[in-house]
């Protein structure tokens, strides 16, 4: 709202962005961060506020790249850990679900779950843990809720990869303050089944590609997907037909049928190994990749991760979906998801977080870093 003036602006939304007070308690800080609206593509004001608060309120080395803010300790510790969170949210509702409001033990409003509670926890740790047991890199990035090509973490990985170097990373996406380790990779392919066109009145003159695809569908339906243990967590793979198309007219034997298949693979396999498996599964048919992203190992065999699990003392499960933790995998950095908020409420109009989860998440990470 660049043209606001003090006279025309309601008292609850001051014209200038107030500085973020990192000494405030976690609930107040979460509310303040949420109240600086930052829908994807519009994160500059919040990135400014985060950068300013880190520069004035901490002794960290602060860098700004676009709307990505990185703050680091450089204490010469034996290990470095990285805490990351995105600054953007999905659009507000109509009427807007901001400013935030505190109702009983819940903080309501856009971003309270996904994921400004996690961002507030990062900022509290940055401000209060001056001498962490491990060196820490805090990353705040933009454009997570939109297409992958805009993702600030992806941009940073390409432009300043050294800033993502770490022994272990925590992404503070909402997990109900439980640990969800690593993530599965995803591969999408199109499998082409060739045939021969003919008039459907004389089907013996052709070769029906749709009929032939039936054998592949049966093979898929009967396939027993792998259940894989990686670093102590159990991942359930999936190999599924997610689309099919074929046929040109109601009186023509189809000369081609294309099956779209999605393979969700455990993080013990690379993208290349996942593709090799799929090509072997559909041997004899052309396979074209349309989308591919690696998984991420949870890295629970690392000391930093073991201490993390011990100090947090919360349930640990495998992340079955795909998240930005996979962006760390390409640098060999194992990563887990841990943050306040119920992921089922992310992006919902009644987005809200129990304030106990905000406090518990802050306290848990403080036990680990402090
Ligand atoms: Zn998120």
Written account of the structure:
It is a single chain. With 370 residues, the chain is α+β, with helices and mostly antiparallel strands. The protein folds into two domains: 6-183 and 296-369, Zn peptidases (Aminopeptidase), CATH 3.40.630.10; 185-293, Alpha-Beta Plaits (2-Layer Sandwich). 27% of the residues lie in helices and 24% in strands. It contains nine helices and 17 strands. It has helices at residues 26-35, 44-57, 116-128, 152-159, 209-222, 271-281, 303-312, 325-329, 355-369; strands at 61-65, 68-72, 80-86, 101-103, 106-108, 135-141, 168-171, 179-181, 185-194, 227-230, 233-236, 238-246, 256-265, 287-293, 316-318, 335-337, 352-354. Strands 1-2-6-3-7-16-8-15 form an eight-stranded mixed sheet, with helices on both faces. A four-stranded antiparallel sheet has the order 12-13-9-14, covered by helices on one side. The structure holds zinc ion. Zinc ion is lined by residues 86, 114-115, 144, 173.
């Amino acid at each position: 709202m660049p043209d606001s003036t003090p006279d025309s602006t309601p008292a609850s939304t001051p014209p200038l962005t107030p500085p973020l007070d990192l000494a405030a308690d976690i609930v107040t800080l979460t509310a303040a961060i949420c109240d600086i609206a930052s829908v994807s593509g519009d994160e500059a004001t919040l990135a400014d506020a985060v950068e300013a608060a880190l520069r004035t309120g901490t002794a960290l080395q602060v860098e700004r790249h676009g709307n990505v803010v990185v703050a680091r300790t450089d204490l010469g510790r034996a290990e470095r850990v990285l805490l990351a969170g995105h600054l953007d949210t999905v659009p507000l509702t109509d009427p807007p679900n901001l400013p935030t409001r505190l109702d009983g033990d819940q903080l309501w409003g856009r971003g309270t779950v996904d994921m400004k509670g996690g961002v507030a926890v990062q900022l509290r740790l940055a401000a209060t843990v001056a001498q962490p047991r491990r060196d820490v890199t805090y990353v705040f990035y933009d454009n997570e809720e939109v297409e992958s090509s805009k993702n600030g973490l992806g941009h940073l990985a390409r432009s300043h990869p050294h800033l993502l170097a770490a022994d272990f990373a925590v992404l503070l996406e909402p997990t109900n303050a439980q640990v969800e380790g690593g993530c599965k990779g995803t591969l999408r392919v199109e499998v082409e089944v060739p045939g021969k066109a003919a008039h459907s009145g004389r089907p013996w003159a052709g070769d029906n590609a749709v009929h032939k695809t039936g054998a592949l569908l049966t093979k898929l339906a009967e396939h027993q997907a792998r259940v894989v243990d990686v670093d102590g967590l159990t991942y359930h793979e999936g190999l599924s037909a997610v689309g099919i198309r074929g046929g040109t007219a109601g009186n023509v034997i189809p000369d081609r049928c294309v099956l779209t298949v999605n393979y969700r693979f455990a993080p013990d396999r690379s993208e290349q190994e996942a593709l090799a498996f799929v090509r072997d599964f559909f041997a004899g048919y052309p396979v074209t990749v349309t989308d591919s992203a690696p998984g991420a190992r949870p890295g629970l065999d690392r000391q930093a991760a073991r201490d993390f699990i011990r100090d947090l003392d919360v349930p640990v499960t495998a992340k079955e979906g795909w998240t930005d933790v996979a962006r760390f995998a390409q640098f060999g950095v194992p990563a887990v998801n841990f943050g306040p908020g119920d992921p089922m409420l992310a992006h919902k109009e009644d987005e809200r977080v129990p304030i106990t989860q905000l406090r518990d998440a802050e306290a848990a990470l403080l036990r680990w870093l402090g």
